[in-house]
Amino acid sequence: MNHAHEVGIMMGPGRGSAAGSLVAYALAITEVDPLKYNLLFERFLNPARQQMPDIDIDIPDDRRQELIAYVHEFYGQAHMAQIITFGTFGAKQALRDVARVFGLSQFDSDKWSKAIPAMFKIDLTTAYKDSLPLRNLISDSDQNRALYQTALALEGLPRHYSTHAAGIVLAQEPLTDTVAVQDGGDGIAQTQVTMTNVERLGLLKIDFLGLRNLSILARATQSITYQTKKPFDPKQIPLDDAETLKLFARGDTNGVFQFESAAFARCCGGCSPRRSRTSWRPTPCTGRGQWSRSTPSSSASTARSQSRIRRRRSSQSWSRRTAC
């Protein structure tokens, strides 16, 4: 983070569970003061979450590789690696690959693909139940039945590997003491196990997330500075800026990270934010958008939450002593 600030890379203020960490804020990893906004570092208070908390670092997508190269150079090949990810056989891909091995023409292979219903992540078993053309193809010949059964056996298995879109791992000891690695391209090592297994091995995973929104914001900042001949920092815009709040009240959130989806725009249009330094968090709802608000003045609600946590901890401690 220090290097990013030194070379002028615009970073995100922090999000996810790490945004509630006072240590992360003190180290300038995040820019959100958890005391000011009464945030709880919930990952360490949730007994259902046993793994280490993620720190999601938002980076302009056109400078992400630059930062990865710096981290690799700083920590060294033995201590930093990117994470492997596997692409698996989907329904259509399994049929196409098996059809090619069976020697079918492109025309006949397309028949199989077109027989699969256009449903997101549909599997072959569901496709067989829902698609009459697929059932007809399978019943046409013994070869077709063998083709389907082969594709069914391959479905869900790894087909190819690539590099995880965001994650890297760092280790104090050489990574090869803990995990198998291979060449991942660009001279950077790549783990031979996926993200989930990397965490189970106890390695620290950091997500370097390349965001187009930050790239646009960085270019806009540079343009404003150039045109006005004055330094401009978007972080100095007041959080209760009236014109900005009007955009949110209208649901005009196109281009605003995590607020530009149609669902968020509808929810924003259903409220009229007026409070200074208000953070918005969507809650499960039906119909019109409902929102929970968290502001610096909501200390009473936070105090009640902290009181419940203390009572729960006290109860768990008493149960352990009783059991002993």
Descriptive tags:
324 residues; 4-stranded mixed beta sheet; Arc Repressor Mutant, subunit A; 42% helix; globular; 13 helices; disordered C terminus; glyoxalase-related enzyme like fold; two-stranded antiparallel ribbon; alpha+beta
Model description:
A hairpin with a 5-residue loop joins strand 4 and strand 5. Helix 4 (91-101) runs antiparallel to helix 5 (106-114), helix 4 (91-101) crosses helix 8 (142-154) and helix 7 crosses helix 8. This protein has a four-stranded mixed sheet. Strands 4-5 form a two-stranded antiparallel ribbon. Strands 7-8 form a two-stranded antiparallel ribbon. The protein has helices at residues 2-6, 22-26, 64-75, 91-101, 106-114, 124-130, 132-140, 142-154, 195-200, 212-228, 242-250, 262-269, 299-323; strands at 55-60, 80-88, 158-170, 181-183, 189-191, 204-211, 279-282, 291-294. With 324 residues, it is an alpha+beta fold. The two termini are 46 Å apart. The protein is built from 13 helices and eight strands. Among the domains are: 2-82 and 162-214, glyoxalase-related enzyme like fold; 90-156, Bacterial DNA polymerase III alpha subunit, thumb domain (Arc Repressor Mutant, subunit A). Residues 276-280, 282-302 and 313-324 have low confidence and may be disordered.
Set out the fold topology.
Blueprint: H1 2-6, H2 22-26, E1 55-60, H3 64-75, E2 80-88, H4 91-101, H5 106-114, H6 124-130, H7 132-140, H8 142-154, E3 158-170, E4 181-183, E5 189-191, H9 195-200, E6 204-211, H10 212-228, H11 242-250, H12 262-269, E7 279-282, E8 291-294, H13 299-323
Parallel strand pairs: 1-6
Antiparallel strand pairs: 2-3, 3-6, 4-5, 7-8
